[in-house]
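Dear Dr. H.,

I hope your travels went smoothly. While you were away I took the liberty of generating a structure for the chain from your last submission, since the lab meeting agenda had it listed for discussion. I wanted you to have the full record in hand beforehand rather than looking at slides cold. The sequence, exactly as received, is reproduced here:
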Amino acid sequence: MTHARRQLAGKNDTPNELPAVISAVAGVSVATLIQAHTLVPYDGAVVGTVNTDWCDESYSSCQLRSRGTSNRVHVRALCPMCTDEDLRFWGFSYWRRSQQIDGLVWCQKHECPLFRTTGQGTWQTLPHELLDKARPESDAVLADAIENPVLRRYAETCAELLHRPRPLVSFQVLRSLIPRAYACGLVVEQRATGTRLSDLAVERISGPWQQLFWKELSSKAPGAYLPSLDDTLVRLRSGSCHHDYALAFALLYDSVDEAFNDLQRKLPTYRSLLPLLNVEAARVPRYAAARRKECMENRPERLRLAVKSVLSGATLDAAARAVGWGGNSVGRMLAQCLVAAESFTPREATGIACSPVQTPV
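The corresponding predicted structure, in token form, is as follows:
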């Protein structure tokens, strides 16, 4: 592979990036390679920029491709039955990407435990070569993962994220998750007091699986903010980790179909958001006295320009810088408008009284 990379690096029309090298050797497009043969769609399941994908030239996409095609690995998982089937059909076994997702402990095809092998190595060592050294998950962890409905939804959600053709946008995710959280009686803002998403997780998934994969839940005080999970309700930039979102979906929705039908809805258009943006711009922000120039000068025009830029594909920070604001300010106001848009009707003109949605970025 190194030799192939060096050869291809000499061609001006071929980027010296591992996915490009692999795609050239395998004779498939980079997009096909990324979407069908790597963990990149799962690792980059939620992104912070509208109209992006895993194959563009943005820094975040390049980083995702680099991690998703790394050859070094410490923990690998395999299903003995899948390995045997592959040997008999193909004459060799291969690592199934759906079995390498953090927190998945059973083969969804055969409903048997996955075996794990640890130690430094590469993906070039095939599953059947390590089967004798691999060990299954414990019966307690396996039973918990199969019998707990939240954990079954978690596994199904992970599979759905892995096979998506495009990433979700964090704006879509927040617009869907925040109303669900409020409907469950949860608080969202970090400074708020009450029951959080992480408290719901403690209630619903405490057990052997949680103690293995979410140890931090075991020591969490009631009402305490747990960034790894509670950030899924507030973060607008690059998003939390993929498995955090998967668990959030599993906790707040009764089925995977319901969750992704909700998430598939298109974002509101800039024009449809205008009345809400005007109301948000007229609201006196917190700490206005300390940052009066940023908060008050040409506020409606600046907010509209920033939001239009974000919805056109600019990053949150770039859109905010262009109008002289901070990304946190624009993100907070946009999140409030997106959530408020769920219950907004055209009859409610610019005088609409929106109750604040406390959603920091």
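Two observations you may find useful: The longest helix spans residues 149-162. The mean pLDDT is 82.

With kind regards,
E. W.
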